Amino acid sequence: MEQPLKTRPEQVVFTDEYIGYGSGILSTTSGFASAVPLGGGAIAAGSSRTSSKAVQTRIYYNSIGTVALYSKRGRWVVQTRSTGGNVMNSSLVDTQKKAERFVDAMVSLKRG
Length: 112
Prior knowledge:
three-stranded antiparallel β-sheet, single chain, mainly beta, 62% strand, elongated
């Protein structure tokens, strides 16, 4: 199942409790620097801090409510909703047969 590059997850993980998929790692950096002139040169000091976090979405099997299939712009969309009705995930699929197989797989993972 090929998704367009901009919507394709970088990794997918299956556990006993959930499906996790992610788009890589998000890093943020903050810091400061200061310099003082000294003769013909300068003395400088600085500090920085970087924080990294994996960007991952989890779909817990016991939270899967409904799985719907519809067509949009020549592709198929498999949409998973929670038991409360919120959209948990929308995946683009290139053929109806693959989309139907994906729906069947998500429904078979559903618990409750």
